Amino acid sequence: FLLKQFSRISELITEGDLKCLIDNLDEKANEIEKWENVTEKSKGLLSYKAKCCKPKDGPFKYLSVTVFGNCSPELLRDFYMDCEYRKQWDRTVVEHEQLQIDERTGIEIGRTIKKFPLLTHREYVLAWKVWEGSNKTHYCFT
After folding, report:
1. Confidence bin at 2 (pLDDT 50/70/90)
2. Where is the START domain positioned along the sequence (predicted)?
């Protein structure tokens, strides 16, 4: 059972998901699905852009891109992916626990409870994986 469970975890996020993510980031190649701008903000060396897409045959998609100036990709990756430290700086995180890690593939599974203004707390069970591109670009698929 345990071996079967690990093989299923390794299939949660694939190289095909990375290709799809990169295609979605390339706006010119993304004419099949209609993406709507949600927000776009910029201040100094920091910019943030969020988009959403509601495909006919699948779940809602959300894409966010944050660009930080004067920060190494490795430092930023470590900052965002440190779930224990996130509880200290992210005021929306009420609770987080890591459920499982597949050391071979780098896929992690975690449970997070978040609070939002005027809403009840929401619980998420998510799987994620981070890839590093050849130009030190990092991609995170959740």
Report:
1. very low
2. 35-142
73: CB partners within 8 A, 6+ apart: 132, 136, 137, 138
Judged against a pLDDT cut of 80, whether residue 6 lies above it is answered with no
E-state strands within the chain: 35-43, 46-53, 61-68, 93-102, 107-114, 122-132, 138-141
Interatomic CA distance for residues 106 and 85, integer angstroms? 19
Helix locations, 10-101, DSSP H:
15-25, 73-81, 83-89
Could you give the C-alpha distances from 126 to 64, 73, 129, 133, in angstroms and in order? Answer: 16, 23, 10, 23
pLDDT surpassing 70 at residue 7:
no
pTM for the predicted model, two decimal places: 0.72
Task: Let me know: does 30 contact 23? Beta carbons within 8 Å.
Answer: yes
